[in-house]
């Protein structure tokens, strides 16, 4: 699968499979350990809440089963994450030194931003700087921007080419129809298409032959473009440097190239496609990018705050009790037996549907902000979007929306009796499992069906050609396979992983549905990436996997904080209760230690090609 679909695709599908296996093991363990304890608890809970830890008496010694299950689950998860990082590091080094990748010029190419003007004008000096790396420099390309006159000419030429293609296609279709309608002897060529010229582009003029007009336009534009000299171009502070050896590119990316502030400070290795470069961002200065980054971060924080208020308000409004207090929704009162179906809808699927609709537009907004920051490559935009969108979802979807109802209940019932907060936490937080379960089920079945159906791509493939595509080129473009949305899909799966893991010891049924979720998507993605998606421009060497691993560690941290708080909430003053809190804290400390180990051991060899590995590959 690596050679057919790429290392990024392989590691992504492998990550989904890993999450499925993790929840499979956790689900089996929970079914034989904590689930019977929860069912036999004396907490007086009913329905799904009787399956949660909230149904266990705080004084019960059976809580040690939860602590033991949680400890084993965390150790298992850490073992899997470290093992997958070890496998990925080995596969990535194999991929970086594989002959197929080495022969690709992109493996030995770096994109250097903020090149000083003195070096932009002196390519020989720039070559001397990068020539000190092993193998030397093969080629240096200074990015150049066309003048406004030349750019407008190119735009006019491209527009004329498209119009000529449409005219010729329509005329050929018309001639074919006339020929089929009449015999060969009676066939008369239809009149050629005409176009009304416009004086100065505005005032209508006489009609002319459309084919000759567009052909003449293309000829004139091509002549001007071919004769364009240096005065029609201006150098920009960016360069593409191609080395003879891939290791030289990785060494250059890790080297301080200049002593001046920000000079050649941004170096990106592995430029595999011109389509991956955001050319308009290469001309930005370092100070402009830094300022844009601060502004983008501020806007993101503002969006987060506004989204928090909106999602909390919607989550509160869709609560049946709150809606019933409004006059238009008085019919939702509990004593109205005929509205039972509506009550179930409002308390179940409506919050998840509203939340899903709100989250649809978010990736596009964050992606736009990252582009406006001056990020030089589209793949880097997507990689940065992974973390930004993930933490946004953790805050707004998981913490704000899911827990808003529990927080409101705790605050309302404890405002006059603060001593009841601990008691309410151990009963109300487990009840949020219903909202999380609903969200996971919604994504598991509706999201899986959406991924299989590919409704948008289906419409583009079969409907757009009949309406918009009027040429063979346009029809071929409409039939081109779609690309996977890496930046928004990976954080969503990581969010489901967080939900399932954090509630695996609180309400184990959530982990079961998380297992179903990742099992479905593993089967679907394995087919989609082999036969549906085409991601030629996305080639980062699997760099999305380390970010997914870090997001899994975040899920572990959240789960461990929950465990500590839950054990504190069930603290009765006995030695056993105190020891349960201590054990939960030790598990948290263990995760921190493993995280530090990962950062020290695996992250340095993942981002760049080690020198020894490059030398071994040449032997």
Order of strands, main sheet, comes to 2-5-1-6
Spans of at least 5 consecutive residues whose pLDDT stays below 50 are none
| Radius of gyration, whole Å | 31 Å
Q: Could you estimate the helical fraction of the residues in percent?
A: 55-70%
Principal-axis shape equals: globular
Mean pLDDT: 82
Number of helices: 26
Percent in strands = 5-15%
Q: Summarize the biggest pleated sheet.
A: 4 strands, antiparallel
Distance between the termini: 27 Å
Structural class: alpha+beta
Topology diagram in text:
Layout: H1 2-5, H2 7-32, H3 34-39, H4 63-97, H5 99-102, E1 109-113, H6 117-120, H7 123-130, E2 137-146, H8 148-181, E3 194-199, E4 203-209, H9 210-226, E5 233-243, H10 246-253, E6 266-269, H11 286-317, H12 320-324, H13 340-347, H14 349-372, H15 378-414, H16 421-431, H17 433-453, H18 455-462, H19 464-467, H20 472-478, H21 486-502, H22 508-531, H23 544-569, H24 575-601, H25 603-607, H26 611-618
Antiparallel strand pairs: 1-5, 1-6, 2-5, 3-4
